[in-house]
Every structure is written in C-alpha cells, then in structure tokens.
Design goal:
The protein is α/β, with parallel strands linked by helices. The model has no long low-confidence stretch (mean pLDDT 93). The longest helix is centred in the last third of the chain and has 25 residues, at 220-244. It is globular. The chain contains seven helices and eleven strands.
Amino acid sequence: MTKLGVIGGSGLYDIEQMTDVRKERVETPFGNPSDDLILGRVGDREIVFLPRHGVGHYLNPTEVPYRANVHAMKQLGVTHLLSVSAVGSLTERYPPLTLVCPDQIIDRTIHRDRTFFEHGVVAHVGIAHPFCPDFASCLISRAEDAGISVQRGGTYVAIEGPQFSTIAESELYRSWGAAIIGMTAMPEARLAREAELHYVQLAMVTDFDVWHEDEGHVSVEKVVEYLHRNAANAKKVVLSLLNGGLDWPSTCTCPTALANAIITASDRIPAEQRKRLSVIAGKYFKS
C-alpha cells in the first residue's frame, strides 16, 4: 500500500477533510525528529506530516535532524515523501507565488549528516535524478486536477544558510543555469533515496533572491507573507494527491535504490550497524 508523508511548514496540516488525527512521538536510531509526527486519514488514504523546523520554527536549516526525519517516515510505512518548502527564484520564469517541482539539485551544504551508512558499512546509491520522476508526474497531474499550476523542471541550489545569498553568489548560481534556491532539499533528497522512498519537492517561490534589480532584496517578512499566500494552494495539492491516489505508472528505481549499493562485505558489517540500519536496509543484510 502506498502512503504519503509530507515534510514542511505547520500551516499545511490544517486539512479539514482529515480524520483520525493523532500525534505520535517517534524515536529513531539517528535521534529525535524535528517534532511529533501528525498522522491522519483522508478517505481511505493515510498521511503523515512532520514540521521540518519544529512547531514554532526553532530549528535553523543546519540544525534540522534530516536523518531522524526521513527515518521516522520510513518507520511509519511512508512510501512517497513530499517536501514542501520556500525558495527564492533565480529566473524570470518563476516569479513569486509560483509552485515548482524541480528535477535537479546542486548541493552547496557543508555541515550536515548526509548518509545513513557509516561506522563500518558503506553504500553508494545513485542520485543522478534526485527527485522521483514518476512521483513528480503524479503530483503535477493531481495539482492540475485541483486547478493548481505547478511548473516542472529546473535546478534547485541548496545552500547552508541560515543567511541569504550575497549578490555575487546569486549571480553565480544564475550563471550555472539554476532556477531556484533554498536551504532544505539537501541532504533530505539524498537520505530519501537511501531509504528507498519516492521523493519530490513542491517548492513555493517567495522572492527573487537578491539578483533582481527591480525587486527588493529577500527578507523574512516577504518570505512569510508569500508562504501564507502559497499555503492554501499547497494544501489543495496535498488533498488532491490523497483523493486521486499515488498509484501512478512507475518505472523508477527508487524502491530498489539499495539493491546493488551496499559495497561492504556482509560478514564485515558490525552487528550494531545491522540493528541501526534494519529499517533502512535490513532486507539486504544476509543473516
């Protein structure tokens, strides 16, 4: 059975059609998630929400426990993980209030744990296509069903933050052909691939970063204002995904990303790591 998980801002979780709503505190081998997870149903579809920065937004982008967050989703049986976040635009094509489903990432983060595999076990997963193309097609189609336009394609630059870019940095990323810029897609996308989840990003454009001569520079006030204006559309997309279902023709390799990725000899994997990674990779460990 498919199951949708959503990581994003707390405003997403007010979906009137949700029933059986409850909070669950989840412990993982990689520490505590950002906050309690919110579980519920829309019709016969299950959904799991998690506020990425914690309720009240008290975790900066570097402090977010990405490994614990993705692991908690996997523990709860999530198969499809939707990341919803604010981004700046690096192109005229995506003005503020645009919703974007990017297809590539440039990772400029430097201080974050980016893999589940360490301390005696090594895996090399493929991440040429960091977002699941099949899930992206499903999301865009369901958004259209709800009358919401989502632009497909473009490269997301993930920066460490929490500061915004300098003008020189913004112009550099534009020269690379990047379309949007944010602070949270990495290592979330890497970890979702290691967890064999279908993962996509619904990016909500709030500003033109700092490169646009005719626009004021990005500010917290502007980001929050446009986030609130975009939240209603993001909720409609989530609801349409639940109503329409996630059963979409799939040829991706997300569910088998680890099949040939673990390079460590089975008899060399420490027992404590087998236990620690049981939810992520247990099916690949020989007894």
